[in-house]
Amino acid sequence: METKDIIFDLRVKKGLSQEELAKKIFVTRQAVSRWENGETIPHIDTLKLLSKLFDVSINTLLGSKRELICKCCNMPLEDSTTSRESNGIFNEEYCKWCYADGVYTLDIWKRYAEIGGWEKLEEFKTQLIDELNTLLNIEGLPVVESLNVLPGEFVNMEYTLPNGEKVKFLDDKQTYLGSQLESEFGGRCFGIVANMDFLLVCSYEKNGENPELVIYKKR
The domain containing residue 72 runs over which residues? Predict the structure, then answer.
């Protein structure tokens, strides 16, 4: 759908006349009419007001022209999963689990906020990827190209040591940088987990079954 049709549909569903909508977002009725006729589109500041009023993202108002991806965890974003600022306005850069009410919700963000935030986190990701591709020589492990932010509870697998003891190395309540890669030989996947302190590589079958620790290396 085009912006003109989207605004019309949202206005009608809200039970507003063009005049009533205009008053709520501080424009003239003629401006609303021009939008709905496709003659113009709202200014960015007006789009923010429309977004808040109709409870949809600006991307939705513009006909979903961009494929939105969370800059933190790489999750595809829809209106239902997009984060919001403390004033209720959508923040279309993050999902609601990584950022909410104007605050980064994951502990990894809190750590990096002290040393530069997003930019420093991206630099650290690049550094980790270089380490994984140059320091570790693991047969069948493809080249690591990206790392996502992952909750500990999703990647904290239980491994069986040679003596039969079962152990976990991670904390369910922490967040880590990681990725999943299919082995070049097929059959199993590699799981990569890292943070400021360590690099961990494991392998497992479908759905995380039969995990085996490949390497755990302090940085």
Answer: 67-105
